[in-house]
Request: fold
Amino acid sequence: MGESLTESLTDSTPPGAALLRPVGARAGRQGVARQQDGRPGPADGHEAELLLARARAAVDPVLREALGTLPSSMRRIALYHFGWQHADGTPAAGGSGKAIRPALVLASAAALGGPEAREASVRAAAAVELVHNFTLLHDDVMDRDATRRHRPTAWTVFGDTDAILAGDALQALALRLLAEDPHPAAPAAAARLAGCVVELCAGQHADTALERCRPDEVTLDQVLAMAEAKTGALLGTACAIGALYAGTGEADVTALDAFGREAGLAFQLIDDVIGIWGDPDRTGKPAGADLAARKKSLPVVAALASGTPAAAELAALYEAPSDKEDDAEDLEYLALTVERAGGRDWAQNQAADRMARAMRQLARAVPDPEAAGGLLALAEYVTRRSS
Amino acid sequence: MGESLTESLTDSTPPGAALLRPVGARAGRQGVARQQDGRPGPADGHEAELLLARARAAVDPVLREALGTLPSSMRRIALYHFGWQHADGTPAAGGSGKAIRPALVLASAAALGGPEAREASVRAAAAVELVHNFTLLHDDVMDRDATRRHRPTAWTVFGDTDAILAGDALQALALRLLAEDPHPAAPAAAARLAGCVVELCAGQHADTALERCRPDEVTLDQVLAMAEAKTGALLGTACAIGALYAGTGEADVTALDAFGREAGLAFQLIDDVIGIWGDPDRTGKPAGADLAARKKSLPVVAALASGTPAAAELAALYEAPSDKEDDAEDLEYLALTVERAGGRDWAQNQAADRMARAMRQLARAVPDPEAAGGLLALAEYVTRRSS
Reply:
């Protein structure tokens, strides 16, 4: 289920009108910035899209240069994965994702240290993007996911071994970029990024382990902890690294880490809601795909844990051998059962609550709403998607 | 075939009498040290064993502390892999390998910077050992190797996903150790170690790719380059990192890198010879195991490239479908054919030549034979094994 976030965050489909508008996010936005002035703010998504495009433009040359140092065997797989080459090695114009994480690094550095800090953090932003892509390469192998960014995944093209090796090489490249960065914040950033990799590994482990559990064996705490490790950790680390490059104190670094984690969890909650009730025309996935796969996504586990009669019914439906294909009616009924057990409301309220917490952390580290605007826009962007 | 080196280098069987004594190694030893004094030197292996035991004692506490910071899911797999826990989590006394690479870091630091530099490089030595173990975890998954250090490999116990994730986490731990090291050499060491990981990945890629090629498609240059990337690179990097912690200039770092690479290649050559002609009672493997698996090891590729009538015969035997089990006679005949085509002589001469080159590089960076003694002992140790 963490996977769906990852896919969505790196999906190249532009966001449309908001399917879900978590109340807390909007309240937070107002609390931090909108009440301060009347101008059209980040909530319309334009500011976020601009920040993402600028982040992409800033880090792509660094990424291309770093990938250019790889031996040809590894370079070929990496360039394919980034969408910059076809499998046969010819150039491709494909998108390499939305650059959410680099944008968070740059926006955090800018929020706390201005344009100079932003400029200084470009290499670190590229390192964070390399780590993200290393995890995508490995997760796709482990999860047997065949499609990524509308293309066949690297393991389906080059085989498991080469996809694993290319992922290993990207992690090394990421940490080499920071080791070679003379900026005084680089060692602390490298230590934080390496620590985050360990957390991402534990998150992916928990995800695969939970998927193997019986529905009644999975607790809400477990699945929230998994989502934080698998999704929140790297968004938080991206923000914390930006703060490090701005030269701020430990308190601000911690607050920005927490901001990114909470926003990441809000994102995952919304993404899981979309995975059940999203419009197939917008998501590009069949309706109820997560239910068909019996994914123990956050709304489902909340529903199972609700102690309601609907929870018992859902548990029975989830436990039943799913060897027969569900038809549309089965999936609709499953979705309705999750909703009746309170899973949808819980997820939306949790997302709102997480966004409110994110806003409080942001306001603590960046009291000036003008300076906080970029981070706010990005946080709203990732939790306001419709696809 | 790189695999067999790795296994042997981490094998806990103590070395016995030398099966092979590459002429160059002995000449090198005499050239650098033995001619200087008459005392019993490293050639008897005692000095090397002492250095290995001291390295193990120095890095184990750092490794245990680093592994102790892992989340429990990853820690369990790592502690199993290191032989410090059984699969059920109870303590185990198993060996975690011979610590050749950490010993090379410490010996290089000591050779160029004395005891203080050695002491300062312990953390870096542990980082090198973590990288080595990360590659073992991943290589075993890719190569489907079921045994490592006389125990079932991690993937056979915990599954592919967890073995891959634990490997990822160990790479991150390695680079975090260096990122957190305040020593002025740490960033350069981290950059070098990360660059080496990329080379190791390319080497493993080449190894798996070459094994899939037809015998007549593989050139000696390719297989030598593969062996250097897969085996020589990390031994060279270990030595170079030791030199960095000694605060020496770039020329000495480069010379020690080259020393380690050449010694590593010599090792691989000898290891491949043992893989064909080694005494099963000593190697613990059935006679001719590498031939039974139709491995394109260095002596085999040299034989195939010899242009002799025996080469053509060997090619035909290697290309024939090996669906029937070879009997002892078949394997003996294959070994004889490699030998008739000059594969054995070539490998032994190459090993001697590589050791001679290693000695020249060592003498360049460490002219004092007393100071060079430790590195020399280790280089001889790894190329003098009988099992």
Chain B touches chain A through 44 residues (CB under 8 Å). Chain B is about 70% helix and 0% strand. Residues 178 and 190 of chain B are 6 Å apart (CA to CA). The first helix of chain B runs from residue 2 to 10.
